[in-house]
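Work Package 3 committed the consortium to producing structural models of liganded targets before the mid-term review. Because experimental data for this complex are still outstanding, the team generated a predictive model from sequence and the ligand definition alone, so that downstream docking and mutagenesis planning could proceed in parallel. The input record is reproduced below exactly as it was submitted to the modelling pipeline, together with the SMILES string for guanosine-5'-triphosphate.
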Amino acid sequence: MTTSPLEPTGTAGSCRIAAMTPPAPGGVSILQLSGDVIPILERLTGRSQWTVGDLRLCDLAGIDRGLVSMPAPDIAQLMPHGGTRIRQRLLDAAETAGACQDRTVSAISPAELYPEARDDVEAAALKTMTRAASPLAIDLLLQQSERWAECTDWNEEDTERSQRLARLIDPPDVVVIGPANIGKSSLLNTLAGRDVAIAIDQAGTTRDHVSGLVELGGLVVRWHDTPGQRTSDDTIEQEAIEQAAGLIQQADMLISTRDPGTSWHEGAHDPDLKLSLRCDLGLCRDADLCVSSVTGEGLIELVECVREHLVPMADLGSTRPWRFPGLDTSDSNNA
Ligand SMILES: Nc1nc2c(ncn2[C@@H]2O[C@H](COP(=O)(O)OP(=O)(O)OP(=O)(O)O)[C@@H](O)[C@H]2O)c(=O)[nH]1
Ligand SMILES: [Mg+2]
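The resulting structure, written out as tokens with the ligand in place, is given here.
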């Protein structure tokens, strides 16, 4: 009787496998084995004599070909293509080969994930980096190990700055409200550089709220385009207008819009920015900023203004330590 190369032989000790990359399609996935990795590596790749520092291009259980590295005696990483099905099949194959599947990366400590890190802060920074939404987070995270090592005090301002900087990791919500048919969806599409929302010359085009991730000067925000504020017989649109009220409450930044032919929406919440749209058709002098999606006028200033409101330059330039999401400061004297 022949046995499958993936069949556990009973010699493998304790080995776990976990997906290190988010459960969404991407270029490459990273699956990490930890523990007694060599027997599992041999079964998955069909190759023996694995040593620390190895980086090989291998067949992965007949499912894909990809790089396999062994950075430490008890850590190995498989790097197949990033399709969700490939990743799941490989996780299952590793389980068949005797590894125990950790379904979430959060189950693994940063120090275990990054044995090469200088200290716990650097390990936590590297782990947080894998899920950071904004490019602006990267350099800051890399500086935290040194900053925490030098830090001898911690104050209220540091706490507040840390909370604002957390917006670099989890995208803040920017909610745009205003009358119908004035260019709100066109603005989202222009900022995103692609068609996220339908934009045509007809009031009530956006009948349900649409959101998309948009990078504004290195800060990624979740931009919510709401249906134009108007009375309508359409129940879906009316429901969506009511739902927008909930979005407004949770907004990190509320932008009220109008164009030369309309007026500001009267709501319970004061906007953080009064933005005039379609300024190529005329200026609204009572606006904080005027933009046109057609001519591009004011867009650079808008990007700068939103970034500054959510993550001010003073925070980005501060040399104080950052208590970033994922950093456990419970055993630190500083926090
Ligand atoms: N001249 C000019 N026209 C614009 C500009 N931005 C959008 N438009 C036009 O304005 C019309 C309405 O655009 P939308 O982006 O759909 O407007 P909206 O505010 O999302 O509309 P609703 O979804 O109905 O609330 C379209 O015909 C756009 O081409 C602009 O900056 N200048
Ligand atoms: Mg719209």
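Reviewers should note the following from the model. Confidence is low (pLDDT under 50) at residues 1-12, 330-335. These observations will guide the Year 2 experiments.
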